Amino acid sequence: MLVLTIIFVMIAEVLIFVPSIARFRHTYLLQRLSEAHLATLTLLAMPDVTLPREKESELLAQIGVRGIVLNRPQSRVLMLSEEMPPSVSASYDLRRGTPLTLIRDAFVALMHGDGRILRVIGQVDGAEDTVVEIIMDEQPLREAMIAYAVNILGLSIVISLITAFFLYIAIRWLLIRPMQRLTSAMMVFRDDPLNARNLIEPSARRDELGMAERELAGMQRQIVTSLRQKSRLADLGAAVSKVNHDLRNILATAHLLSDRLTEAEDPMVRRVAPGLIQAIDRAIALCQRTLKYGKADEPTPVRSFFSLRDLVAEVGEAAGADGRSERQWFNQVHEGLLINADRDQLFRVLLNLGRNALDAIDGDGRVVVTAERREDGVAIQLADTGPGLPEEVREHLFEPFVGSSRQGGTGLGLAIAHDLVHSHGGSLSLVSSGPQGTVFRIWIPD
Questions:
Q1: Beta-carbon count within 10 A of 108 CB
Q2: Is 309 found in the same domain as 269?
Q3: Are residues 18 and 119 in the same domain?
Q4: What is the pLDDT of residues 288-304, one digit of tens each?
Q5: Cβ proximity of 440 and 381 under 8 Å
Q6: Is the pLDDT of residue 326 over 60?
Q7: Residues 124-132: what's their mean pLDDT?
Q8: 281 and 345 in a common domain
Q9: Which residues constitute the domain of residue 240?
Q10: β-strand partners of 438
Q11: Which pLDDT belongs to residue 291?
Q12: pLDDT on residue 256
């Protein structure tokens, strides 16, 4: 930063130096013309006095010229001159100089001014009707210009160093230190992302760095939340794997005992027994695969066409709606509506949604299941008359462990249902939720 600042300041000084050296040369020549004009005025004030040759030479030396010519409207007079005036190398009329020609002439003087004799023509202030011509050596002018350039160079270096120092301090305070803070926060967070003390505290800055700090803080919070969820999921998988073996043995025993119910003489028992056996079979199948969130091995859907109305009826019985007058399950799916899906997985989806809906309603509430076939699939809608979902639950509705509004709930039901529907290429969405109730829609493409 220091080096770049010095370079940029020096470039700026060069751009300033170009016109300033031309101005210095122009001022130098005007000063010689003015001194020559004063000398001629002195001679004109004494018309009867003739200066000796030694005095003329001394006067010319003091002015720094070799000859002076005074041009008036009616006359042109050689006022002072050496005995043998030298030949002129170049002539310059200061009355006709433009900025570009003055710059060009200045650099010509710097490069070729050693030994040249100049003829300079110009006017001085206060004598507009008089034109002064002088003959002079260019070497003193060149030496003065070089000395001026050296002074400008030294001043430029000092200015660039001071500017670079203060600029570096300002940039370090405003940019470098905040960037170091950002990178340090990233490195510390990378080493221990679950440590809350490693989260960056964004400053109140409103520029791009302040925005970067706020975005980094938000990203870190999201990562921490995600890691904690995954950690809990891993713990859940480990816990399920430990009880899986014993649970399968218990379900196997229940399956053997339920088989005997089919031989009972009671008609009610014989009617209920197949549903019980089917429910135990599903539980055994789930135990054999383990839970999805303990071990990500949910099978690919095995699609087949089946009656959706019959499936919804089974879901109502399994969810506990049968026989409860205060919790009514309305199956309004048309007879003969067939859906192409994995029957067991869709059963799990509807069961999770149905249980949530039945838990939400109270008194004489109800749950209504409808469905309709569209061009490329089937849309299933499940509506309840419950109090609706809180706003904070809607934001994380399908996230495990955070999408539950029920006391003691884990939020896994909706997350599992969402993933099962997604594996079919469909979608599970919340249509509406409020005091009038909650509506979910399932879309299963053919």
A1: 14
A2: no
A3: yes
A4: 665 444 444 567 899 99
A5: yes
A6: no
A7: 82
A8: no
A9: 196-297
A10: 384, 433
A11: 47
A12: 62
Q: CA–CA separation, 122 vs 98, rounded Å?
A: 14
Q: Is residue 52 part of a domain?
A: yes
Q: Which residues contact 252 (CB under 8 A, 6 or more apart)?
A: 284
Contacts of 121 (CB under 8 A, 6+ apart): 91, 92, 93, 94, 95, 131, 132, 133
CA distance linking residue 92 with residue 132, whole number of Å:
12
What's the pLDDT score for residue 290? 54
Q: What is the mean pLDDT of residues 356-368?
A: 82
Half-sphere exposure of 272 (CA within 13 A, CB side): 11
Could you say which DSSP state residue 84 is in? S
CA distance 243 to 410: 18
- What's this model's pTM, rounded to 2 decimal places? 0.45
β-pairing, 67-72 with 437-445?
unpaired
Q: How confident is the model at residue 248 (pLDDT cuts 50, 70, 90)?
A: low
Domain boundary (297, 319, 338) is at: 297
222 CB-contact burial (10 Å; exposed 0-12 / middle 13-18 / buried 19+): exposed
Number of other residues whose CB lies within 10 A of the CB of residue 214: 15
State the distance between the two ends of the chain, measured CA to CA, in whole angstroms: 64
Strand 366-374 to 328-331 pairing: parallel
Show the tokens assigned to 373. Answer: 């076939």
CA 442 to chain CA centroid, Å, is 37
Q: Quote the strand ranges of 375-409, DSSP E.
A: 377-384
Rama region for 172: left / alpha / beta (φ>0; ψ in -120 to 50; rest): alpha
- Does residue 125 share a domain with residue 211? no
pLDDT, tens only, 75-87: 788 888 887 778 8
Alpha helices (runs of H) in 262-307, residue ranges in sequence order: 267-289
Please give the Cα distance from 261 to 436 (Å, whole number).
43
